Amino acid sequence: MAHSPRDDHPRGGSWRAQPVVWLGIAVLAATIAACVWLIVVSAGDDDAAIRTDRRIFGVPTQQPSPAPPR
Predict the structure, then answer these.
(1) pTM score, two decimals?
(2) Which tens digits make up the pLDDT trace of 14-47?
(3) Short-list 25, 18, 21, 26, CA closest to 9
(4) Distance of alpha carbon 15 from alpha carbon 12, whole angstroms
(5) DSSP 64
């Protein structure tokens, strides 16, 4: 009977022994840190007012006026 490398390891095939899992955890942590950093940096900038008509790209910028009562 042939032994696989996993049988020789004391933890068997534990997920903690897989490098791709640690790479995935590192990428996830870096992505979350980048999102938080982007939110923090963008919170310090004020939005500039845009001079427009009542529509931007065909989307109304204000609520339509209410219909007159009948």
Answers:
(1) 0.52
(2) 878 888 999 999 999 999 999 999 999 998 888 7
(3) 18
(4) 9
(5) P
